[in-house]
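Pipeline run #58 for the internal structure catalog. This entry was flagged by the ingest filter as a single-chain record with no existing model, so it goes straight to prediction. Upstream metadata was stripped on purpose; only the residue string is passed forward. Reviewer on rotation: M.T. Logging verbosity set to normal.
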Amino acid sequence: MFKNLMLYRLGPGWPASADQLEAALAAEPFAECGATQQKSAGWVPPRGEEHGALVESVDGQWIARLAIETKAVPGDAVRRKTQEAADEIERTTGRKPGKKEVRDLRDDALLALLPQAFPRRSLVTVWIDPGNRWLALDAGSQGKADEVITSLVRVAGKGFEIGLLQTHSSPQGAMAAWLADPEGDALPHAFNVERECELKGSGDEPAVVKFTRHPLQTDEVRQHIREGKLPTRLALGWSGRLGFVLTQALQLKKLAFQEGVFEQDAATKGDDRFDADVALLTGELRAMIPELIDALGGEVEPGAATPAPGAQPGTSDEPAALAAATP
C-alpha cells in the first residue's frame, strides 16, 4: 500500500473525527480532466469502490486517497502546429506574427491538441494517525505531496495546521555517523545498514558516489566520509521486518516488508484484505517510526505551521520553509 513515506506533524485545528474529515474532503471530489483541461485533482474512495467513503477508519487509523490526473501534449507537436499557424498568417497577410501573437498561437495550438491527449492518473495514499498526530503521504515527489497538503489546507477550514516533522539530528549527519563508525555501534540495534547508499561532496560540481548491492561498512566508504562526502540516501533495515531508503530530507523511499510479514492475511480477500493490510501496515510503521525518530536524536517540539509549496520535511539544524495554513 505504501512505497514511500513523507511524514508531517498535525497541529491544532485538525478535524476531530473521521466523519468530520470525510465531510471536509467531500468539498473536493475527483473529476476527470475536461477536454481542454491539463490537470485535475480530488479525493477518491481509498477502497476503490465507486461512491464509497472518502475516509476509511481501520483500528483507529484513517486512510484517504487523492487522485491526480494530467494531460501532456508533446512539445514538438505544439511547436509544429504553432509554426503551421504562423506560416499561414505570413502566407495570407505577408507579415510575420510578433512575439505576443506567437504566444497566443501557441496557446491556441495547445488547446486544440489537448482533447487528443491521453490522461495519466496517479494516486497518493494518505495515512493519518490521530493518536500520534502524524500525517504520512505515499508520495514519491514533493510536487505530489504539495497537491495533498494544498487540498487539505483548502478544505479543512480556518485554523488547520500541519508542521514539518523535525528531529534534533539531521538525517544526513546521523547517516554519516552510522557509516563512519567502524564498530557499527552508532546505529541503534533495531536498525541495520543495508547495501545501498549515495554520497555527495560539496562545491559547484560535487562528486557523487553511488553504492548498489555493495557492503557499506568498509574502509572505502569511511574514506569517502572523511573526504567530506555526505550521505543523501542510505538503505536501512528494521528488526528484520521492514526495509527502506532514508533520505537527507527525512523521507522514506522503497518501503518493503520482509518475506513473511504479510503471510497472516494473504488468504483474505476484498474488504477484509484492505482492513488487514491497513492494520498490519500501520501497526508496523507505528512501531518503527518512533524508533527512527529516536535514532535521529528525538523530535523537536512541532511548530504550528504548514509547509509552503516546495518545502520538504527537514530537521532542526536545517532551515525549513514554513507558512501559515489559514485559507
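catalog note: The chain has three domains: 5-72+118-166+302-323, 78-116, 171-247+251-295.
catalog note: The first strand starts at residue 5 and ends at 10.
status: ready for reviewer M.T.
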